[in-house]
Amino acid sequence: MRQLLAEYPVVIETPVAWGEMDAFGHVNNIVYFRYFESARVAYFREIGYLTVMEETGLGPILASTECRFRVPLTYPDTVLIGAGVPEVGDNRFVMKYRVVSVAHGKVAADGEGLIVSYDYRQNRKAPVPDAVRERIATLERTVLPGP
Amino acid sequence: MRQLLAEYPVVIETPVAWGEMDAFGHVNNIVYFRYFESARVAYFREIGYLTVMEETGLGPILASTECRFRVPLTYPDTVLIGAGVPEVGDNRFVMKYRVVSVAHGKVAADGEGLIVSYDYRQNRKAPVPDAVRERIATLERTVLPGP
Amino acid sequence: MRQLLAEYPVVIETPVAWGEMDAFGHVNNIVYFRYFESARVAYFREIGYLTVMEETGLGPILASTECRFRVPLTYPDTVLIGAGVPEVGDNRFVMKYRVVSVAHGKVAADGEGLIVSYDYRQNRKAPVPDAVRERIATLERTVLPGP
Amino acid sequence: MRQLLAEYPVVIETPVAWGEMDAFGHVNNIVYFRYFESARVAYFREIGYLTVMEETGLGPILASTECRFRVPLTYPDTVLIGAGVPEVGDNRFVMKYRVVSVAHGKVAADGEGLIVSYDYRQNRKAPVPDAVRERIATLERTVLPGP
Q1: What is the pTM of this model?
Q2: In sequence order, which residues have a C-beta less than 8 Å from that of residue A76 and are 6 or more positions away?
Q3: pLDDT value at position B34?
Q4: Which of C13, C30, C41, C81 is the mutation pick for testing B, counting most B CBs within 10 A?
């Protein structure tokens, strides 16, 4: 199962809650975006992004996000949620997500988000802070050695 | 239907969302507490509680809450949610709630919350501010003339 | 504001709930997908999709969805949520969504979903039922006269 | 921490999600009822209630529930949620809940729910099935030896 998440340096685990299933008897689609968000925040903690934000005023904004549903989730189950950053641009980067069902040993969903660097003091887009850029590079390398 | 809400000076209206139903095909129990919260916040706006909080540091904390479920809700429907304050003590007051199903013309749930007055600057319980106490009295009288 | 929604034949309205704001003080990203879902279900009711599903076993599955965030939403506000179908394929169609903030008179978010036609009795993809295809065509024309 | 949960024979664990915090920066009140529900469903699985329901048509309905908030929860944290049944009546029983913050080593909330036994085939209240009554007795004894 970890193999399915090999390209995702940050992985969190959370139980599926019965009450997250909707009237069709599957975990409701909005819950997958909660999964993505939880993995995104864990990734941000891992690279100290929130500390950078407090010190410099430069923080992340979620500009867009998407999800491709593969296998429906049902209670009881546990999901592993991976997050990785495949691309960093000047003032934005892409984060990818993967949700794996432990009960099925399969990918339940894949997703992506575009995160923009924002200067909260001057209210405008800003470059991705160097410290953030470097820690992303280190974190991704650690887990994903090049060929 | 308004008669069912005669004792609730603040009433808000909201559509039932399909996605709030759970695997039993009824609106999930936690959604009722979202309804209560929305009515509570509307009541607080009505009496200017948040302005008082900004000026004095004295604001509300939800200490406890409960719900008695009467008739299950399903999509499609619209609910009316009423809030009223039957009792004000020295440093706390009781708020009662009622959820009415428009489709059924019936009470779907009744509830109650205990709200404690808190001094957010000194981190301790505090008396209910006079301005809040007076506006509650006025609002409740307006709608509920005594015998 | 209706002009912003001119290309969306189905429009629903819902109040922003205070409790849907997250720790950043904005309506949390997952709530937008609840908005999309509510508009999608309203659209399906408008074209009688669920009746077709009961009769034929052919129903919709959400295969993927995305959201582009434009303006943050805050309480108090009301949103209008539009849904439209710009493209119908053999066994799938695209639904587009738009969320408009009444307080700001602006588009808060745009989105899209890919819906696949599924035979729930035989557990496989299926053609979009003719009745559904025709009602979509009628509904879209009604609101969107061609050039 | 387990000592705080000694009287709760079923205990589940779940991480606090960042997105469950509201604009006050604390886990929103409705989330506690999701915690209670997850522990309730885990308890029902433990005693095989859903199997009994399929066989006999007699299942549980949540008639009322309440929560007393003790310590606010914030991300990051993990909660342990305990469920126990202190009282079983003819056609109803009481379930109690406790939420413990791992980060604080303290009780974050206590709660209670009234569960009514319902005959889903005949649509009326029904006695608590003997199998359910016995398994509750066994489960509670296992964990809570009498004096």
Answers
A1: 0.95
A2: A15, A16, A18, A103, D45
A3: 98
A4: C41
